[in-house]
Amino acid sequence: MSKKYYWLKLKEDFFERDEIKIIESQKNGKDYINFYFKLLLKSLKTDGTLRFRDAIPYNLEMLSTITNCNVDTVNTAIDTFIKLGLMEKWEDGTFFMIEVQNMVGSETSWAEKKRGYRNKKTLSSNCLDNRKTKIGQVRQEIEIDIESEKHQKLNQILLQKQISKDKQKARDENLSQQTKDNQVVEI
């Protein structure tokens, strides 16, 4: 029988959420967050419920024992979690971690091995494709560089022509002005 692995997926903005900021700002807020993570991990295999061997709902003392947290911390933290909508307490006394369905990931050891094999196979088959792609990219970069050089040379030529035209125009205007100045006006 293959093992099944579970993990929590935290979004990168987890600690930016209002609920988490409110909890952290309290006197023992860091302890409450630590306790919250322990409860999430404990509820992974049971789809969010906190029950001892799927038969007995955990009470505050039991949660204190299994999480190695002070009973007062557990009591205050659970009240806070319920008020903030992170946890529910059902009629039968079961605590339910609301967020766990959105945060859980799992796979069997066989699936992990199979995924590793597929990744290895994909990497080796992509090796040739990567070489071809890199050669194509180098050729494309060379072509882009050549085009860029052509554009630079063309811009330089056009700039030189414009400068020459401007100089010629300035000379013509200067010559015209000198001619006007040298003419004698007859009366």
Q: How would you characterize this protein structure?
A:
- It is built from 6 helices and 6 strands; from the N terminus they run βααββααββαβα.
- Strands 3-2-5-4 form a 4-stranded antiparallel sheet.
- A hairpin with a 3-residue loop joins strand 2 and strand 3.
- It has a domain at 4-105: Winged helix-like DNA-binding domain superfamily/Winged helix DNA-binding domain (Arc Repressor Mutant, subunit A, Orthogonal Bundle).
- The protein has helices at residues 18-25, 29-42, 60-67, 71-83, 100-103, 109-182, and strands at 4-8, 49-52, 56-57, 87-89, 95-97, 104-108.
- By secondary structure, it is of the alpha+beta class.
List the helices and strands and how they pair.
Layout: E1 4-8, H1 18-25, H2 29-42, E2 49-52, E3 56-57, H3 60-67, H4 71-83, E4 87-89, E5 95-97, H5 100-103, E6 104-108, H6 109-182
Helix pairs in contact: 1-2, 2-4, 3-4
